[in-house]
Design goal:
about 110 residues; five-stranded antiparallel β-sheet; 5 strands; globular
């Protein structure tokens, strides 16, 4: 993807469709949003990942404003991408784990 790969943000549905310069559309699920060095970044996972195996990779995109509209664009600088990726990994590691094995009464 290049910096021209943009899409409108629609977090309410949780799914974001990105169209590249060749017209190919890929669907992603919204995972997290955070600010880093004054720029807002998004962590997304492919919408077609296997839920039982979990998402093994995520994509980092940054928020830009084009013609007054908030859009997502790729991060072309490797150092910036790696730094933001590490920030998201740290944020993910700090999330509490959810126990889906609770019984129907809500007791553990």
């Amino acid at each position: 993807m290049s910096a021209e790969d943009n899409t409108y943000l629609d977090e309410e549905e949780g799914v974001i469709e990105l169209e590249d310069e060749d017209g190919n559309v890929t669907r992603f699920e919204f995972v997290d949003r955070a600010e880093f060095n004054g720029t807002v970044y998004y962590a997304l996972v492919p919408a077609d990942y296997d839920e039982e195996e979990g998402a093994s990779e995520f994509v980092v995109l940054k928020e830009t404003v084009i013609d007054g509209e908030n859009m997502l664009a790729t991060v072309d600088d490797d150092d910036e991408y790696n730094a933001v990726g590490e920030m998201f990994l740290k944020r993910f590691s700090e999330l509490p784990e959810i126990d889906f094995e609770d019984d129907e009464d809500g007791e553990e």
